[in-house]
Amino acid sequence: MGNNRLAGALSTHRISVPPPPALDAPPVDTRPDLLASFLSDAAHVAGGFAVGIAFPHAAADVSALVASAPRVLPIGAQSSLTGGATPRGELLLATRGLTGVTLQSRTTVRVGAGVPLVELQRELATHRLYYPPVPTFDGAFVGGTISTNAAGAATFKYGSTRQWVERITVVLADGGILTIHRGETSASADGRFELTYPSGRVVRVPVPTYRMPDVPKLSAGYYARPGMDLIDLFIGSEGTLGIVVEATLRVIPLPRRAFVLVTCDSDQQALALAAALRRESALRWHDDGPLDVAAIEYIDDQSLAHLPDDAFIRASFPRPAPAAVILLAQLDVTYDETATIERLGAVLASCGVQTDPLVALPGDVDASARLVELREGVPAAINGLIAAATARVHPHIEKTAGDFIVPFDRLGAALTLYRRTFERHGLDYAIWGHLSDGNLHPNVVPRSLDEMHRGRAALLEIARGVIAMRGAPLAEHGVGRSVLKQQLLLELYGEGGIEEMRAVKRALDPSWKLAPGVIFAAP
Ligand SMILES: Cc1cc2nc3c(=O)[nH]c(=O)nc-3n(C[C@H](O)[C@H](O)[C@H](O)COP(=O)(O)OP(=O)(O)OC[C@H]3O[C@@H](n4cnc5c(N)ncnc54)[C@H](O)[C@@H]3O)c2cc1C
Prior knowledge:
Layout: H1 2-10, E1 14-16, H2 32-35, E2 52-54, H3 59-68, E3 72-75, E4 91-94, E5 101-103, E6 108-112, H4 117-125, E7 129-130, H5 142-147, H6 155-158, E8 165-171, E9 177-181, E10 192-196, E11 202-206, H7 230-234, E12 243-250, E13 252-253, E14 257-264, H8 267-285, E15 293-299, H9 301-306, H10 309-315, E16 325-332, H11 337-350, E17 358-360, H12 365-392, E18 400-401, E19 404-405, H13 411-424, E20 429-434, E21 439-444, H14 449-468, H15 483-508
Parallel strand pairs: 1-10, 2-4, 3-4
Antiparallel strand pairs: 5-6, 6-12, 7-13, 8-9, 8-12, 10-11, 14-16, 14-17, 15-16, 15-20, 18-21, 19-21, 20-21
Helix pairs in contact: 10-12, 13-14, 14-15
Flavin-adenine dinucleotide is lined by residues 41-42, 73-81, 84-85, 95, 113, 135-137, 140-141, 143-145, 147-148, 150-152, 238-239, 243-244, 379, 476-478, 480, 515, 518.
């Protein structure tokens, strides 16, 4: 970070945009059978449509396509849970052809935006390296994760995508190709950036003045802080300000990893154990004690009730008693393995955990995969129920879920708020997520269209409580085109805040060409 400080001292709020390369745009495919497989993302919102799709292989191709089309939606793996990667009549710009992984040193890698994280990790693993800020879905593309500032289970230890991006190349709405190095361009004292063009044109971009909640992960519209780095404006902007074509990411030595599955007899016990494990990790990071916990995942009793028996049989883990909850802890074994496991046992005992944990030691790939599969079975089971309701009850029934984060010490109050609100509205629900970050996903399980609407009202009510706890209702999935999530953004920053975001958009994309309607409504 020393170099960053030096760069910060030399940083300016101006950056020059080179003229776009004058190239012919690659072909646009309009075949309906091909388009059909790109009209929806993981939010499964119906009614997507597109004028065509193109598969560029280089920044210059992206530039030519952007210059030639009135409306463009960049897409990665379309694993968005917000409808942000579902087209509404744009040209789809599929980034999968933007490939390439080049290791630059033991600490940085240069990657194309269309590289899936699983492929990046595979390549890094051959050099015993690792890219830490991975979302639960590792098929997501590098460009998609930068655009949503994705974060996963291990944010408590490693932070979100933002902290790992050193450089990006983006194609702007006018086709200009801009490379931004962290530490080189920061906002002026009066809160703006200036993009200068060879023609003498100057684009002034105002930095919004709203105050972002102080939480470990946030994907709630544009990043804004006094003196902020320009790169941070594009990270998390969900394709609305520029199309990421390439990035330089920081990497670390590949950790030795163990997983531990623990049954707790109540939420209170789970929270006490998570707090104890977080304290142990803080000690380890100060070189004191053996236990290094990178992530703690939580699965509540309602979620467990929806898991089929064979999920437990495959994991070789007995189905817990009805009121019990499960924690899945990910340990980075950075100290002696035996001492680590012994200390874990002592912490479990000190929290009164009665049942034996199931441990997958480093190197036991099959056992680790079985435990992770149990965790992944939860969203799969709930999504299956929703898909069945959509098919059998009403075609407009959709996933209705929160992505809330609160400071860790407010988690107990937050869990009570989630449960009481759903129960007061008479809704079936399931809660799971990244407990060590204070980031949980309360999901409504709607059995009718009316329950889905009541679920949305409940989530809005919960969001207000979360904001009052100094948390955020948009932690990692972004805002996208979800009506509910756009409403939550409004709750967080107010109309004034949204208008400040619109001012950024107007400066960089005056004709609302890129991802229109994502984050906030298009004019
Ligand atoms: C099972 C499952 C688990 C998930 N778990 C997590 C999790 O733990 N944490 C988390 O953060 N997310 C999670 N997600 C959500 C999703 O994986 C992330 O939002 C991911 O970052 C999206 O990447 P993608 O490549 O699929 O992007 P897409 O879904 O294709 O696009 C997402 C948004 O980014 C824009 N975009 C895509 N590529 C670019 C680009 N190159 N340049 C500019 N804009 C672009 C799109 O226009 C869209 O607005 C999960 C999703 C699923 C299905």
